[in-house]
Amino acid sequence: MMSALGPSLLDPERLISTFGLIGILALVFAESGLLIGFFLPGDSLLFTAGLLVAGGTYLHQPLWLVCLLVAAAAIAGDQTGYLFGRRFGPTLFHRPDSRLFKQENLARASAFFDRYGARSIVLARFVPIIRTFTPIVAGAGHMRYPAFVTYNALGGTLWGCGVTILGYFLGQISFVKSNIELLLPAIVLISVVPIAIELLRARHTRRSDRSR
Q1: Least CB-packed of 27, 110, 144, 184 within 10 Å?
Q2: Are 86 and 71 in contact (CB under 8 A)?
Q3: pLDDT per position as a tens digit, 28-74
Q4: Contact indicator for 30, 152 with CB cutoff of 8 Å
């Protein structure tokens, strides 16, 4: 299977067939907590992992164990990002662009955090790139650590388990198996539905406030 989302090097099935569950956990951690992880295929990787667990291909661990470990890796990644932001945040905002770092990505995450506050830790999980930088912004902004831990655990569990379970159940449908390359981009789009709902809710709130 060649990924419809990027170079063959980042093809989810190739990554899983090569590195197995350990590779999935490492990539989830890197995308969540390391600046260089923003380009990794998190959503499609977890969806493909669920699909492969359903088919017994490459991954032979039970679904509950895969979900538990993925959620733990995602939570640990965000914890690392938060601590990194707490320590190096001010310096990071003045760092020049490089091949692997763009100020615009940090700025987008900062605007996202400013807009949604603590909820952004959960919502950002479902937005590629934003999920890599949001915990760093939270740390740089000295978000209260107990609140961060709570929202991080919730977001990491919803994303890590939710996308994997979706892949597991859809992976048992023959049509999905036969058209997975076409469906992977749709999975990414579906993953931003929570953000769309939140945006509509915020717009409705603003209109209600104006009408008063």
Answers
A1: 144
A2: no
A3: 998 877 766 656 667 888 988 998 888 788 888 999 999 999 999 99
A4: no
> pLDDT tens digit string along 182-193?
666 666 566 556
Whether 6 is in a domain gets the answer: no
pTM, rounded to two decimals: 0.75
Domain hosting 169: range is 12-211
Domains: count for the chain: 1
How does DSSP assign 51-82, residue by residue?
HHHHHTSS--S-HHHHHHHHHHHHHHHHHHHH
Q: Given the structure tokens 């809710």, which residue do they identify? A: 201
Q: Quick check: is 3 in a domain?
A: no
**Neighbour count for residue 176 (Cβ, 10 Å):** 17
Distance CA 124, CA 131 (A): 5
